[in-house]
Amino acid sequence: MSDAMRVQSFSELLGSILQExxxxxxxxxxxxxxxxxxxxxxxxxxxxxxxxxATPIGPAAGPHTQLARNxxxxxxxxxxxxxxxxxxxxxxxxxxxxxxxxxDEGYNxxxxxxxxxDQSLNEYVHAWVLxxxxxxxxxxxxxxxxxxxxxxxxxxxxKGIKSPPMTRFMDRLDDAxxxxxxxxxxxxxxxxxxxxxxxxxxxxxxxxxxxxHGCPPDEIEQIARYLLExxxxxxxxxxxxxxxxxxTVMRILHDDLEFTEIQIPDAVFANDLQYxxxxxxxxxxxxxxxxxxLYFGAKLSNTLAMANNKETLPGKEMYMSGRxxxxxxxxxxxxxxxxxxxxLNVSYAGGADAxxxxxxxxxxxxxxxxxxxxxxxxxxxxxx
Length: 384
Prior knowledge:
Number of domains: 1
CATH architecture: Alpha-Beta Barrel
CATH superfamily: Aldolase class I
CATH topology: TIM Barrel
Shape: globular
Low-confidence stretches: none
Order of helices and strands: HEEEEEHEEEHEHHHEHEHHHEEEHEHE
Radius of gyration: 20 Å
């Protein structure tokens, strides 16, 4: 089996969807009995970034939001907040294999897109158009609001984010008219039953900023201010679980959870953003966003860097996610919400699953996204 991702044309994607649905009543292997059916009076429906959000859950930036077909699978299973795979200026990376270990808690050594920037853009536009097509195919069009939000995710430093390829990428997500018009011509020629569907050219008005472990605090602030002030984007800044400090993190892992084999070098904590500076950063960016009538919030949390002691994955360092991260991120969530007396928007990702999502929503997380749980048996249907 090849370890390289293969993208498909829009015609191939829609053609395979229609054929499979007609013959098997399934799409990409998910049977229609497992499709999420939206309702007008959903108890969890809300608004975010000025748009209706049918469910405040979805896939976090990761392997489930890189290809159009994966985004569609998440959407069919009820994910309506789609955090697109993080992209960066370096788009010809050699990803080590294997790059993910999901035996129990999660570990990975991959951190960015495996596609070229133009390919990533095409996948996101294909998914956006296909969702509009599927609303008609499945009978949702005209019955319930669109209710889906695409959230751009970018990294990892100011120079890369402001580079011409990255600014062009962001510009084209802001206005994908050219690409959508090409697809409309395909619909007109090959799938005329969908040719009159109205497809908004703007895929997103929001962004989640992901920075490298150890990124200087001033640079994080500069990037976020650029996204708010110059790009006019509703902005979430992803924070690291190391904000709790080594003593607290290791106590949770070793004493509370008995993950005694996990070791985290001191440098991981020393080089990352510190808690007091993070509080100052959040206060500054909240004021910046408020002046412009934009949304600002924190994304809790990033993965946790640690020593690679399992030897399942290549390299000396790996990043932990999943159920071992959950109590750490929840502790940080509690601490930071108390710090701001509840007055902070928080997008949650850190061990979220079907068993704790209600707790997270009640605690004020909005939205809740997941990656590790979807890599386990049941896949996308674990969103239901």
